[in-house]
Inverse folding.
């Protein structure tokens, strides 16, 4: 299944652009190919640009990588809870606060990418464990309802979104 097969009631309108960026790639293949693509992309960036901000208050490239890691963890946690039929409404999270508190700029790129790789491998294992019924399970997170499979495509599209921002505004 790919993101174009999702129903509009499986995610909030806010996430539409991220879901669209996932395109027609199959869920597990998209997670796997994203891992390879992102590692290569960020490894190729000159070290001098990793802490650059294109405007005041904008994140650095290191902070973007850390944001991808944090977001993926949150999305996976939600997916696991919903796949396990947990009906508890989950709160949203403040990505700006998380980024500020992460101290990503004090970390080496290699450490960030190793963590990213570990998180993505865990994500792939988790989504591989879901059967069809689990993938269409829904739960409430933040301000609305989302399906497990939409969360998987959200991870893929969110990653592509930030890669495009880096290409357009940082490089």
């Amino acid at each position: 299944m790919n993101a174009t097969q999702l129903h509009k009631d499986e995610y909030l309108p806010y996430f539409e652009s991220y879901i669209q960026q996932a395109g027609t790639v199959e869920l597990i293949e998209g997670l796997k190919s994203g891992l390879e693509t992102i590692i290569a992309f960020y490894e190729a960036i000159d070290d001098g640009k990793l802490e650059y901000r294109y405007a005041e208050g904008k994140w650095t490239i290191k902070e973007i990588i850390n944001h991808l890691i944090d977001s993926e963890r949150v999305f996976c946690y939600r997916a696991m809870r919903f796949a396990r039929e947990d009906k508890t409404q989950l709160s949203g999270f403040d990505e700006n606060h998380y980024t500020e508190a992460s101290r990503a700029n004090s970390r080496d790129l290699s450490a960030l990418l190793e963590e990213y790789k570990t998180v993505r491998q865990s994500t792939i294992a988790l989504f591989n464990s879901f059967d069809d019924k689990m993938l269409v399970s829904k739960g409430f997170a933040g301000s609305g309802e989302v399906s497990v499979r939409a969360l998987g495509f959200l991870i893929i599209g969110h990653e592509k979104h930030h890669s495009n921002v880096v290409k357009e505004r940082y490089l």
